[in-house]
Design goal:
This protein has 438 residues and is α/β, with parallel strands linked by helices. It is built from 13 helices and 8 strands. It has a domain of 299 residues: SGNH hydrolase (Rossmann fold, 3-Layer(aba) Sandwich). Strand 7, helix 10 and strand 8 form a beta-alpha-beta unit. Helix 6 crosses helix 12 and helix 9 packs across helix 10. Keywords: Membrane, Transmembrane, Transmembrane helix.
């Protein structure tokens, strides 16, 4: 039998539990509506930032860190003067621009719609979101400095121009050194840049190194010829006059000496490093398969995907090379240069795209950024001078402007309108280290 006090206690306990339950429900409802409100608030704030820049604004854009060359855009080529070539990233102003009358539906008055070659509207051509026209600036300043000294061009040295080093707003460029680890595509681009300044590129021996020095700006570009991932020179190698193939051997015998004599800028390191290794690996993998299986075998066919062992091989080798760059050049702005395909490009170039994606993954892991030039000119075969090499003209002009743009970022050119983009490499690097989304 239950005693009265026991009954009271139970009653009290049940009341207490009921109260707790009620309180819990009230708190739950409250916190739900509160967190919903704060979520809505966060969303609204987000939308506000987003609509000011982009509906899907990424931190890159919020912090003014977008790399214009990595934004989707249009390559403007002036048919009358390739020196006006420029990349026009598609901005919000462009996307939200007026609908042109010829795009209206239905067509006004049953008009026939066809398009003429007209100039890009100045608002888009001169937009501050477009990358700088560095080559025009640098060439004008080079000419001015050249005329200011009474020294024959061939005898000019950087010392002749040291007093003018800050003129024309180009002080950040003085003494800069760029090293490009790549193939003949890169070497031709260096040569073409050099020729714009009326200078010649020097090459001690084909497929070794090359150097372009512009004394008026004390700017030097160095090419390290990188003949692919192979670890030795095989019997079936197609080039006679190449002794070392493995990058480990080339590094010691030809690259390191040039680094010591010419490769170090104001920081004691190169100021910008680019690497890439598409066409030589593609060729070597073709040649190896042809030599061992013959052209009748599916492996000897050039129109094929890379096989998994090839992927694993190149991944391991590229990774080793990239790790060495990071070890030897810590803190040097380093970029993977997106690969170029052939002028006539079909399934034979599937392997280039595969090597490109592989390199992007390696670059991302190494915290390197992507130099998208190769993708920007993909399929613009009219810019090529032969089956393999983009020629001098719009393609090389774009390349040169890109090199100077990244050098300006590396050197901390400090343009306040684009701040913090040009406040040194690190200012925006964390937003740009991804593989590029291509
Ligand atoms: C192209 O030019 C022709 C001739 O001037 C003109 O009739 C036509 O409307 C133009 N097309 C557009 C889209 O402006
Ligand atoms: C040119 O640049 C190099 C590398 O930055 C530097 O060592 C050298 O002193 C510069 N030359 C002159 C004349 O300032």
């Amino acid at each position: 039998m239950l005693s009265a006090p026991g009954c009271t206690t139970r009653f009290a306990i049940s009341i207490f539990i009921a109260c707790c339950a009620c309180l819990f429900i009230v708190i739950f409802i409250f916190s739900e509506s509160f967190s919903k409100a704060s979520w809505d608030y966060a969303q609204k704030a987000q939308d506000k930032i987003g609509s000011a820049i982009n509906k899907h604004a990424s931190p890159t854009e919020v912090y003014n860190c977008a790399d214009p060359y990595r934004r989707p855009g249009y390559l403007y080529i002036d048919p009358d003067d390739y020196k006006n070539t420029r990349w026009i990233p598609y901005t919000q102003e462009f996307l939200d621009g007026d609908v042109p009358s010829y795009a209206e539906y239905p067509a006004p008055g049953g008009m026939d719609v066809f398009f003429n070659r007209t100039e890009v509207e100045p608002a888009f051509l001169q937009s501050t979101s477009n990358p700088q026209q560095w080559m025009q600036l640098a060439l004008a300043e080079d000419k001015r400095r050249g005329n200011a000294v009474q020294v024959e061009m061939k005898k000019q040295k950087a010392a002749h121009f040291a007093e003018m080093k800050d003129d024309g707003g180009l002080g950040w460029l003085w003494g800069r050194r760029v090293i490009i680890l790549g193939d003949s595509v890169d070497r031709f681009m260096i040569q073409f840049l050099c020729e714009e300044f009326g200078r010649g590129m020097r090459q001690p021996k084909p497929h070794t190194t090359a150097t372009c020095a512009i004394p008026t700006l004390n700017l030097t570009l160095i090419h390290w010829h990188f003949p692919g991932s192979f670890t030795y020179k095989p019997e079936w190698w197609w080039m006679e006059d190449m002794e070392e193939v493995a990058f480990e051997e080339r590094w010691e015998s030809m690259w390191a000496p040039l680094l010591e004599t010419t490769g170090r800028g104001p920081t004691g390191q190169p100021d910008l490093l680019l690497w890439q290794n598409g066409l030589w690996d593609q060729r070597a993998l073709w040649e190896a398969a042809e030599a061992h299986f013959g052209e009748e075998d599916p492996m000897g066919e050039r129109k094929r995907q890379l096989v998994w062992q090839e992927i694993r091989f190149v991944a391991a080798r590229t990774k080793k090379m990239v790790r060495r760059l990071s070890e030897r050049f810590p803190d040097v702005p380093t970029m993977f240069r997106a690969m170029t395909v052939h002028r006539e490009s079909d399934a034979t170039d599937a392997s280039i795209y595969e090597l490109d994606r592989l390199s992007r993954a390696v670059a991302e892991q190494a915290d390197h950024e992507v130099f998208e030039w190769g993708r920007i000119i993909t399929s613009l075969s009219m810019l090529y001078k032969d089956q393999t090499h983009p020629g001098k003209g719009p393609g090389s002009w774009l390349w040169s402007n890109m090199i100077l743009e990244y050098l300006a970022r590396s050197a901390g050119y400090g343009d306040s309108a684009r701040s913090p983009y040009f406040d040194g490499w690190d200012a925006c690097h964390s937003y740009l280290a991804g593989w590029g989304g291509r």
